[in-house]
């Protein structure tokens, strides 16, 4: 049997990526509407237009689907693009501005996923594990940026990563945007300025 042609392989990869996104989008809506515990795999499959076996083949379990939502969040919030931009600069102010942009884009574009993980983590171990993975990725990104700032020769306050993680938290965003009525532009500008004044000596 002849080997797959490159074009056929790429088409297959695109189809698979589209299937995964369709499943995750369906799960995202159902988890938000019904809750994680009350959403069976068969309902996600029905909503996505795939068989339950397809979901099990790609994700292994409902907890695996939930874990996939963290990957979806990264993609929809544009995190890979921001990471690539961070690798192209050594300017501390620009790097802190990128952290502010990430925080804004995560909350603005994927606030529903963040809220679902936050509210469900206290009652469901699968959700708690997924939330912990999201927090781990966030901290790694923050530590990478702080490390790049230090490597540039700029003095940074002790425990800088802890300060950044606290300022970028969902609670701060909720307090300013949801409760105080700030725009996302206001929030991003404030966060950038606060990170600069709090971290750089």
Automatic annotation (TrEMBL):
Keyword vocabulary terms for this entry: DNA-binding, Transcription, Transcription regulation
Entries under InterPro entries matching the protein: Homeodomain-like_sf, HTH-type_TetR-like_transc_reg, HTH_TetR
Stated name of the protein: AcrR family transcriptional regulator
Highest taxon of the lineage: Bacteria
Positions of the HTH tetR-type domain: 17-77
Keyword Transcription regulation: yes
Keyword Isomerase: no
Natural source organism: Amycolatopsis roodepoortensis
DNA-binding region per Swiss-Prot/TrEMBL record: 40-59
């Amino acid at each position: 049997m002849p080997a797959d042609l490159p074009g056929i392989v790429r088409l297959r990869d695109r189809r698979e990526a589209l299937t995964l996104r369709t499943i995750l989008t369906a799960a995202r809506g159902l988890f938000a509407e019904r809750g994680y515990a009350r959403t069976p795999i068969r309902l996600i499959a029905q909503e996505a237009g795939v068989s339950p076996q397809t979901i099990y083949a790609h994700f292994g379990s409902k907890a695996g689907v939930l874990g996939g939502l963290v990957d979806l969040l990264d993609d929809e919030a544009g995190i890979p693009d921001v990471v690539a931009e961070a690798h192209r600069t050594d300017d501390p102010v620009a790097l802190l501005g990128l952290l502010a942009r990430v925080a804004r884009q995560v909350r603005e574009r994927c606030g529903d996923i963040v809220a679902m993980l936050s509210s469900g983590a206290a009652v469901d171990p699968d959700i708690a594990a997924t939330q912990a993975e999201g927090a781990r990725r966030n901290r790694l990104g923050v530590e990478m940026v702080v490390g790049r700032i230090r490597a540039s020769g700029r003095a940074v306050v002790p425990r800088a990563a802890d300060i950044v993680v606290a300022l970028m938290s969902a609670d701060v965003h909720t307090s300013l945007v949801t409760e105080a009525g700030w725009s996302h532009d206001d929030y991003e500008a404030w966060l950038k300025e606060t990170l600069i004044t709090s971290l750089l000596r």
